[in-house]
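re: ur question from earlier - yeah i can do the single chain one, its not a big deal. heres the input i used so u can compare w yours
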Amino acid sequence: MADEKPAYTKPLPDMRPEGETFWEGTRQHKLLLPTGKDGKPFWYPRALAPGTLEEVGWTESKGEGTLYTYSVHYIGPSKAYKGDPPHTVALVDLDEGVRVMTNIVKDEEGFPSIDPEDVKIGMRVRVVFHDATDQITLPKFTPV
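and the output i got, formated as tokens:
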């Protein structure tokens, strides 16, 4: 019998129609950014481009950026995190010019929390994709 991956027990994102393209991209291990008519990326996925009534386009990010700031959470937002190590929640400035909220993790199986001592503002990071369920892949970041 093949090893089955353990069930993912943490809260999952709220799926909304305007994010379908983004989440389909993450399932394919691609970080897609919404864009306006001018091709400039923005964050977060929306039904219409900011400041317009234009359709949203999409572009693939190279998935690299710089850590803008972070916070270490010693108590998780729900009981699902009880007993877990501290989590590093961060804002990352992607090289494409948008700022995203994410978790900073180790690039290891299961993408465990990184030691907060290893996190520094200004450090370079890259995206990794955590296949949490068959339907949900979470983009997280790890040091370069």
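The mean pLDDT is 91. not sure if urs matches, ping me
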